[in-house]
Amino acid sequence: MFRKSIDSVREFFSDVRGELKKVSFPTRAETVGSTTVVIVFCIIMSLYLSFIDSVLVWVVGKIL
Questions:
Q1: pTM here?
Q2: CA 54 → CA 14, 43, 45, 51, 58, distances in Å?
Q3: What are the sequence ranges of the domains in the chain?
C-alpha cells in the first residue's frame, strides 16, 4: 500500500519535472513590454471610466 503511494508520488514529481522542461519563460524585454502595455491600458481605461462616470453624474444631476 505504501509502496504504491510512494511510486505514485515519484511519478508525479517526475512528470512535473518533465513538464517544466517544456515551459518557455519570457525574456526580460518581453516581460517589460507586456507590463508596459498593461499599465498603459489600465491608465487609459481609468481615464475613460472616470469621464463616463462624470458624464453620468452630470446627466443624473440634471434629471433630478
A1: 0.65
A2: 56, 17, 14, 5, 6
A3: 2-63
- Give the residue carrying C-alpha cell 481609468: 46
Smallest CA-to-CA distance from 62 within 1, 16, 54, 17 is with 54
- Give yes or no for a contact between 35 and 27, defined as CB atoms under 8 angstroms apart: no
Q: Are 22 and 14 in contact, with CB atoms under 8 Å apart?
A: no
From the centroid of its chain, how far is CA 11? Answer: 30
pLDDT digits (tens, 9 = 90+) for 4-40: 889 999 999 999 999 999 999 999 999 999 999 999 9
**What is d(CA 12, CA 45) in angstroms, rounded to the nearest whole number?**
43
Written in H, E and C, the secondary structure of the chain is CHHHHHHHHHHHHHHHHHHHHHCCCCCHHHHHHHHHHHHHHHHHHHHHHHHHHHHHHHHHHHHC
